Amino acid sequence: MGQCGITSSKTVLVFLNLIFWGAAGILCYVGAYVFITYDDYDHFFEDVYTLIPAVVIIAVGALLFIIGLIGCCATIRESRCGLATFVIILLLVFVTEVVVVVLGYVYRAKVENKVDRSIQKVYKTYNGTNPDAASRATDYVQRQLHCCGIHNYSDWENTDWFKETKNQSVPLSCCRETASSCNGSLAHPSDLYAERCEALVVKKLQEIMMHVIWVALAFAAIQLLGMLCACIVLCRRSRAYELLISGGTYA
């Protein structure tokens, strides 16, 4: 019965190591997704420390490849030293992922205040030229999120760009996709997006942080199961060794 228990635990552990390899790829993908998305919205949220959780989960993803290899070798060879190392590394990674979750919540709470300050500056410096980074960022956000202005399209009337152009129109990125003849004129507000960009940018950035948080929590749970199975194998193997030395019967 005891040997059967060890075999079952070893099977689960090997399966979990295979999951770790898959998890490593997913973690690296999520980290890269955060980096790419942040690059699209960095003008609206200039706190680079927000990328710390993404950096950490990419590092954890890379480490999980190594952990999976150590775990498989240690399980197949029934190495007590290897399994102990496996458990210790998993514990460290688990703690790291808990830190990622905490940081994710901290930066998620900061998003609204940070965006509120940054978006005012971005819209103020808009000049309508494609080479300008702030202008590209503004047009990109308005097209992607289907919004116009910080709170609504009338915000454009307070910008230097609007006053200089003197054509009573907003950027073409404010035009609805269904309005084929839209030229940004305020005389036809029905052709313009009505959503406020600030709220949508905040929502998008908070969604990104939630992706990081949920991924970290999911794999932290898997790692707990991995540590439990490794400990079971270690304990049963130690018990079997002690009974073998003492001449007892392994139950």
Q: Which percent range fits the helix content?
A: over 70%
Structural class: mainly alpha
Rounded radius of gyration (Å): 27 Å
Largest sheet: none
Number of strands: 0
Order of helices and strands: HHHHHH
Stretches where pLDDT falls below 50 for ≥5 residues? Answer: 1-6, 240-245
Strand content: under 5%
How many H/I helices? Answer: 6
End-to-end C-alpha gap:
6 Å
The shape is elongated
Notes on the structure:
This protein is mainly alpha-helical and 251 residues long. The chain is built from six helices and no strands. The chain has helices at residues 2-41, 52-77, 80-124, 133-145, 160-165, 197-246.
Notable traits:
elongated; Tetraspanin/Peripherin; 251 residues; Tetraspanin_CS; transmembrane helix
Compact description:
This protein is an all-alpha fold.
SSE topology sketch:
Elements: H1 2-41, H2 52-77, H3 80-124, H4 133-145, H5 160-165, H6 197-246
